[in-house]
Design brief:
Helix content is 19%, strand content 31%. By secondary structure, it is of the alpha+beta class.
Length: 728
Amino acid sequence: MAILIDNDKNIFTLHTDNSTYQMQVDKYGFLLHLYYGRKTKGTMDYLLTYADRGFSGNPYDVGPDRTYSMDALPQEFPCQGNGDFRSPAISVRNGDGSYGCDLRYQGYKVHKGKYGIKGLPAVYADETEAETLEILLEDGVTKLQVALLYGVLPGYDVITRSARIINAGEGTVCLEKVQSACLDFVTGNYDIISFYGRHAMERNFQRIPVAHGSFKIGSRRGTSSHQYNPLMILARPDTNEDFGGCYALSFVYSGSFQGEAEMDQYKQTRVLLGLQEEQFSYLLKAGEIFYVPETVLTYSSQGLGKLSQNLHRCYRKHLCRGKYKETARPILVNSWEAAYFHFDGKLLYELAATAADLGVEMLVMDDGWFGKRNDDNSSLGDWVVNEEKIGEPLKDFIEKINQLGMKFGIWFEPECVNEDSDFFRAHPDWALHMPGRKPILGRNQLILDFTRKEVVDAVFNQVCGVLDQGNIEYIKWDMNRSMTDMYSAAAEQQGRIAYDYMIGLYDFLERLMARYPNLLIEGCSGGGGRFDAGMLYYTPQIWCSDNTDALDRIRIQYGTSFGYPAGAVGSHVSVSPNEQTGRSASLETRGIVAMAGVFGYEMSFVKLSEREKDIVREQIRKYRTYAPLVQNGLYYRLSNPFEDELAAWEFVSEDGTEVLASAVMLEIHGNMTASYVRLKGLTGGTCYQEQESGRIYDADALMEVGLPLPLQCGEYQSYQYYFKQVRQ
């Protein structure tokens, strides 16, 4: 069993295949955290220590015992106001104006299968793959209840955390801060790994020691954001890709969030991840329930590589949904960098015809097809096809594309609106705005109030009206600004706007998936501004970044790989010199980098030479071979592109029979030394044949010494090797 209960000692133990999580209800009813780490047996309550620590408060229950204080004890869901002066998981303002709560144990339940969360994305699993533990805590005065939820997926080394907060009292309480998960460690030195960035340069890797005080990341932008990703990794200082203990916390949510690592005065470390507390205030009336978004936890004793693989496997199989969950996605060409707004039906058809000849499988018509949209200053909200621009009804145009053997996809930005639109002129109060103030503009657009059902319904009906016109098999779902002006004309509580907005968005996406079960939705928010586990529940691939420069993409995709599978990464080949950076890289290099994700193109094929078209044909042929391996294989980082002069990565099939290794030289010098790429994850004692050269290599040698790369002149030389296991 994954969940073990010792009723005598009130100890709860959660086991995965390779990890153990343990907690205890003590004699005062407090739920204390005991252990999380390598799989172990027995009880770990001996790890708790008690001493008279100055200026640490003592619960009234303990009487004269000054050795007992919440300020030093490790807790599962620490409260503000009960003598713990560290950062809390929950902060409550009571009906009488006081702050604080005192949550004590009331009971537990165990269920087969994995819990779900009303209105929110979450990992799912059936009764054969998961168990759920529910522990009920209650404040004895206000009757505020917290049902802590633990989902255990043993085969994936994953434990999920969420909570339901119930006002079981007669008065009102206001939630001022709610975190999804807390990990308290009573001993140990750690590094905290986070992923920072900006638009067009997302998820840069950062690793720093946890020191006294608080290290905090987060987003106040209404989206998970380009600036910080809702993923944190805690690692021991000696941990690397292949060795050492480490923990990941991944927030299954797409809105504002915060994560924190705090070392207290006793060198204990607390890690929290959950909702952003700024501009959050959620009033619970009697009987009302608040649903806390989920955090996915995983532990690895085998380094960061195994930690990432745990998340990848879980998300591929138990978070992503739909037809394309694990199947090969269509290779597409997107019209954006090929034409921007300046296209018509003739140009798009020419692009599609050329693409079809090269082997591309789908045309995506990006921004500019609706209303009077010829720049980014108007028409968002008017989801009506501009037939004059396309030259014919959308249905007829799609049929022409389909006749080429091509699928058809289309771009939307349903959450935003331009003031210059019929939609806004009819419903100006449907955009978020603060009374008496001019709005903050982003990309000259406003954000629609998705906290209101009538707004969501109106936009949903418009989108469906377009999708029903023809055989549309793909949507690129964009969102191109941060959230400001968090005020709804219809809301009673302005502090819940950011949260309720996400509930409205998730409802929209859930309904869209139900109505169009074969539709592939690719998430996008100015590229990678909402690349998170929450969106993966609805959109199994996400446009990784608006930056399509191959060299920058190496670093962006490297950071992304720590938490998200390659099958979630939208990655395209664009023109050279690159339009974001001006940097030049060969078509071969651009292709190899893009093959580390869901492959596609973002360029005008019409302008390619015949030699370049032949290269594209070969890239497409190869990727069709590699796609199942890229989407479902084990991913290995073979170098660190932020430190090394070589970038290298690898995919290995779960059974070890197929291997795809790729490398790009980041630096070139005179009289270069040879670079060796050491492979990982091969089956020792066997041999592998490189498919292009036919040469057979010993697996152990490839992992121990590596494969030498050819010494070649020229910037950003790239290499790709595809191996199959052979008997020798």
